[in-house]
C-alpha cells in the first residue's frame, strides 16, 4: 500500500499546525541543500540539459559532474527530492528511477546575465555570516550588531579586508540586480528628463549600467568605497568615484540608492539624506529602491519576505527595514517632503524624495 493511502489518525488541521511547527525546526536544510546544488553545478547542469524538460537520474548527474564517489548518486537523490518537494526541481518517476529537471523556482538560481539569486544565496549562507546568528541573544541583552559582535567590525569594513568575502559580497549584491531593475525600467519613468545620476553605494555598477543603457542621454557617477568600485566594469558614460557617503555625495540631478538605505542606522540615514539634500539641485530627487515593511505583520508572501529581509539586516548590517511612516520621519528630518511611493516590483518599492517647494 502506498503511504498516501494509509489511514491518518490526525486531521488536516492538526497536521497543518504540528507539522508546520516541526518544519520550522528543520527548515535550514532547504537553503543549505540548494546552496550545495548550486555550487556542485547541478542547477546549471539541469538548465543546460533542457531545463524543465531535463530528465537526468542522480547517477547521470554524478557522471556529468565527474564525481567518482560511489555513494554520490544516493546522496544527490536525497538532496534533489527535497528540492523537488519545495518546487525548486521537477521529478518524474521512471520505474524505480527518479529523473530530475528544473522546477518553477530554480530558474532564479541558474547562472545567467539576466539575473540570478545564486550568488546572493552563497553570500547569505556564507559561514562568516551564518556564525553571526549565534549572537542574537547577546545582542538582545547587551546591544550591538550581530555581525559586529561576532567579527569586531561591520560587514563593509570586514569585506574590505577579506578579498574572498568581498568578491562573494559584491557578486551577491550584483547578480540579482537585473531581475529587479529590468522590471522597474519597464514601467518607471522617473529617470526621464535628467542629465546626471549618481548611484550611491552602487557597488560594481550593475544598477547604473542598466539605467544608462535604458536612458542614453544620462551621464552616471558610480559612488562607493574605493575597494568596491575598483572592480566595476567600465561604461562610456559612467565615472567611478571613491568616497564616504557620510562625508559627502556627488552632485547630480538624481541620487539613486538600491539596497543601501536599509543597511544603515537611523542616524546614518539622516546624515546621508542631509548630504543628498545639499548635493541636489532644487528640482532634483532621491530615488530609493528598498523593502517597505507593512505597519502590521501580514501573512502574505510579500509581507513575510519583507519581515524576513529585516532579519537579514539584523545579522548582516547595522541597519533595518522600515515602515512607510518611519521612512517619512527620516525624510522630513533631512528637509525633504514626504516620500512618494512610485511603484512596487516584487518585494521592492521605488520611492522618490523631493525637496519641499
Automatic annotation (TrEMBL):
<keyword id="KW-0808">Transferase</keyword>
<dbReference type="InterPro" id="IPR036390">
    <property type="entry name" value="WH_DNA-bd_sf"/>
</dbReference>
<feature type="domain" description="O-methyltransferase dimerisation">
    <location>
        <begin position="29"/>
        <end position="112"/>
    </location>
</feature>
<protein>
    <recommendedName>
        <fullName>O-methyltransferase domain-containing protein</fullName>
    </recommendedName>
</protein>
<dbReference type="InterPro" id="IPR001077">
    <property type="entry name" value="COMT_C"/>
</dbReference>
<dbReference type="InterPro" id="IPR016461">
    <property type="entry name" value="COMT-like"/>
</dbReference>
<keyword id="KW-0949">S-adenosyl-L-methionine</keyword>
<dbReference type="GO" id="GO:0008757">
    <property type="term" value="F:S-adenosylmethionine-dependent methyltransferase activity"/>
</dbReference>
<dbReference type="GO" id="GO:0008171">
    <property type="term" value="F:O-methyltransferase activity"/>
</dbReference>
<dbReference type="GO" id="GO:0046983">
    <property type="term" value="F:protein dimerization activity"/>
</dbReference>
<dbReference type="InterPro" id="IPR036388">
    <property type="entry name" value="WH-like_DNA-bd_sf"/>
</dbReference>
<dbReference type="Pfam" id="PF08100">
    <property type="entry name" value="Dimerisation"/>
</dbReference>
<dbReference type="InterPro" id="IPR029063">
    <property type="entry name" value="SAM-dependent_MTases_sf"/>
</dbReference>
<dbReference type="GO" id="GO:0032259">
    <property type="term" value="P:methylation"/>
</dbReference>
<dbReference type="Pfam" id="PF00891">
    <property type="entry name" value="Methyltransf_2"/>
</dbReference>
<feature type="active site" description="Proton acceptor">
    <location>
        <position position="262"/>
    </location>
</feature>
<dbReference type="InterPro" id="IPR012967">
    <property type="entry name" value="COMT_dimerisation"/>
</dbReference>
<feature type="domain" description="O-methyltransferase C-terminal">
    <location>
        <begin position="133"/>
        <end position="336"/>
    </location>
</feature>
<keyword id="KW-0489">Methyltransferase</keyword>
Amino acid at each position: 500500500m502506498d503511504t498516501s493511502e494509509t489511514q491518518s489518525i490526525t486531521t488536516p488541521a492538526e497536521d497543518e499546525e504540528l507539522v508546520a511547527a516541526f518544519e520550522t525546526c528543520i527548515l535550514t536544510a532547504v537553503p543549505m541543500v540548494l546552496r550545495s546544488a548550486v555550487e556542485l553545478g547541478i542547477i546549471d547542469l539541469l538548465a543546460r540539459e533542457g531545463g524543465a524538460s531535463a530528465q537526468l537520474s542522480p547517477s547521470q548527474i554524478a557522471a556529468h559532474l565527474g564525481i567518482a564517489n560511489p555513494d554520490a548518486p544516493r546522496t544527490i537523490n536525497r538532496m534533489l527530492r527535497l528540492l523537488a518537494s519545495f518546487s525548486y526541481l521537477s521529478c518524474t518517476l521512471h520505474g524505480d528511477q527518479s529523473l530530475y529537471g528544473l522546477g518553477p523556482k530554480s530558474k532564479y538560481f541558474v547562472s545567467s546575465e539576466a539575473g540570478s539569486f545564486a550568488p546572493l544565496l552563497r553570500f547569505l549562507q556564507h559561514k562568516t555570516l551564518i556564525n553571526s546568528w549565534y549572537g542574537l541573544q547577546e545582542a538582545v541583552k547587551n546591544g550591538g550588531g550581530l555581525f559586529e559582535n561576532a567579527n569586531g567590525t561591520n560587514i563593509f569594513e570586514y569585506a574590505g579586508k577579506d578579498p574572498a568575502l568581498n568578491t562573494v559580497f559584491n557578486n551577491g549584491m550584483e547578480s540579482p540586480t537585473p531581475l529587479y531593475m529590468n522590471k522597474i525600467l519597464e514601467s518607471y519613468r522617473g529617470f526621464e528628463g535628467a542629465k546626471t545620476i549618481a548611484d550611491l553605494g552602487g557597488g560594481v555598477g550593475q544598477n547604473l549600467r542598466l539605467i544608462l543603457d535604458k536612458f542614453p542621454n544620462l551621464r552616471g557617477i558610480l559612488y562607493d568605497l574605493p575597494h568596491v568600485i575598483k572592480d566595476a566594469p567600465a561604461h562610456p558614460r559612467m565615472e567611478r568615484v571613491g568616497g564616504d557617503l557620510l562625508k559627502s555625495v556627488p552632485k547630480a540631478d538624481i541620487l539613486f540608492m538600491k539596497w543601501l538605505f536599509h543597511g544603515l542606522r537611523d542616524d546614518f540615514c539622516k546624515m546621508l539624506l542631509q548630504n543628498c539634500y545639499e548635493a541636489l539641485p532644487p528640482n532634483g530627487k532621491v530615488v530609493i529602491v528598498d523593502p517597505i515593511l507593512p505597519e502590521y505583520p501580514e501573512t502574505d508572501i510579500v509581507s513575510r519576505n519583507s519581515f524576513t529581509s529585516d532579519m537579514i539586516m539584523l545579522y548582516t548590517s547595522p541597519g533595518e527595514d522600515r515602515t512607510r511612516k518611519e521612512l517619512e520621519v527620516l525624510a522630513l528630518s533631512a528637509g525633504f517632503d514626504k516620500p512618494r511611493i512610485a511603484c512596487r516590483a516584487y518585494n521592492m518599492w521605488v520611492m522618490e524624495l523631493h525637496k519641499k517647494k
